[in-house]
Amino acid sequence: MLGDALVYGTSLYVIHRSARAQAGAALLKGMIMFGFAIAVFARAIYQVVTEAAPTGEIMGIISILALVANLICLALLTHHCQDNLNMASVWLCSRNDIIANTSVLVAAGLVLLTQSPLPDLLVGLLLTVVFARSAGTVLLQSWRAII
């Protein structure tokens, strides 16, 4: 949740600032997304090494609550996602959160059904790719806007 707070707080802070300031905020969001990709990948590796099995019930409950909050945020941002790089990047962060919430919800159901950590691991690897690709896009666009 700290990442979300930084993303939304930064976006609001620069909303009426210069294009360069907005590009800087987008650069920060890209770095945060890339950090999420690394964190998710690291957790997936940790899970394989330790053979830790996730708790499907907890995964499901948290995913549902986060999904509702992120759907509200995405709905509020959708009208402004084409306004500028700042708004496009925060919209992308919210979209990624919804992909993550939905994927974890599906994984939670599969973990409960199969009693296997494999669905959680596969979702972790999928989310690593989603976050890394989004981060790459935002980092490239924001870097071009700054220089």
Mean pLDDT: 86
List unreliable stretches of 5+ residues.
none
Overall form: elongated
Biggest sheet character: none
Q: Quickly give the structural class.
A: mainly alpha
What share of residues is helical? over 70%
What is the H-and-E element order? HHHHH
What integer value in Å does the Rg equal? 16 Å
* Tally of discrete structural domains: 1
How large is the count of helical segments? 5
Overall strand count: 0
DSSP strand content: under 5%
How far apart, in Å, are the first and last alpha carbons? 31 Å
Q: What does this molecule look like?
A:
By secondary structure, this protein is mostly helical. It has one domain. The chain has five helices and no strands. It has helices at 2-13, 19-50, 56-78, 85-114, 118-146. Helix 1 (2-13) packs antiparallel against helix 4 (85-114), helix 2 packs antiparallel against helix 5 and helix 4 (85-114) packs antiparallel against helix 5 (118-146). The two termini are 31 Å apart. The model has no long low-confidence stretch (mean pLDDT 86).
